[in-house]
Design a protein that fits this description.
By secondary structure, this protein is of the alpha+beta class. It has 9 helices and 12 strands. The N terminus is likely disordered. The structure holds the ligand Nc1nc2c(c(=O)[nH]1)N[C@H]1C(S)=C(S)[C@@H](COP(=O)(O)O)O[C@H]1N2 and molybdenum atom. It catalyses: L-methionyl-[protein] + a quinone + H2O = L-methionyl-(S)-S-oxide-[protein] + a quinol; L-methionyl-[protein] + a quinone + H2O = L-methionyl-(R)-S-oxide-[protein] + a quinol.
Amino acid sequence: MFFRKQKSWEIAESEVTDFDIYQNRRQFLNTSISIGLASAFPSMALAATEDNPTQLFKGLSNSPFSTEEEKTDFESITTYNNFYEFGTSKTDPALNATAFPDKFESWKVVIDGECEKPGTYDYDELIKPFSLEERIYRMRCVEGWSMVIPWIGFPLADLLKKAQPNANAKFVEFTTLYDPEQMPGQRRAVLDWPYVEGLRIDEAMNPLTLLSVGLYGKELLGQNGAPIRLVVPWKYGFKSIKSIVRIRFVEKMPQTAWMKANAREYGFYSNVNPNVDHPRWSQAKERRIGEFLKRKTLMFNGYGEQVADLYAGMDLKRYF
Ligand SMILES: Nc1nc2c(c(=O)[nH]1)N[C@H]1C(S)=C(S)[C@@H](COP(=O)(O)O)O[C@H]1N2
Ligand SMILES: [Mo]
């Protein structure tokens, strides 16, 4: 899909303006909730206030990979999102996705391709064999903002090993649900749906790479990629694909949704790299949501100790 027309996500909107719109919106929502207009935004009110601790997710051990930095507040993590299947503005997912998916228990994930033990699992079966932990990770969006999110999940490697990839498995491809009924954003050709992402097999097997099913002690809300999503903390946020229905071992490098949309701007690797600018803006700094001054963006988002070896000898300007 190659449009000459500007797409909605290309519309130049300064990051500050975007953040300010969000702040104002949030102020407005808080006010309307307090004066009893919450019914105009029922899902939003639910997301912000519902205390829904999940037994399964209580008292988990905190991973040694966790950052000690201050966590972004729950409200920001659940109301300032990118999830184009539910709209292209940051506030759309919280308005449209809180009740997603409608059938949580019957969510299925297919694991197939170049492996000895392919299979289809429902959500409970999929996560049962693995021990969940809390991982507090930095998340850096390609647009220039970042958050610190206390994820709950398990290493992707645990699941991949169970499927026994064969020698042809050089990459792993991930696919989001395609269901325009539930995902109104898919009714417009913003991206070539369904959203697809990919990792090289060694990146996928790296112990930092997480499959997440919750955050802040609760199951994921729709806007964060319920019921199961990827988290790859040393890469730009768009690699962390949400609401996964398929994990496939492949021999060739997958064509991701963002590469198809604009290969010049979005490469396969997409490692956080302050020295390689996006064609339309610098990647040297970022705004941590909730802070005023910008911070310097760190190479590999600060995870170089764990992942720099994966790219030894590679030209990271060419393989961006
Ligand atoms: N399926 C799907 N996954 C997605 C996206 C999306 O639009 N669709 N947006 C990505 C982007 S750009 C970012 S920054 C993160 C945001 O995750 P969060 O909203 O949970 O913070 O999700 C990523 N995963
Ligand atoms: Mo992003």
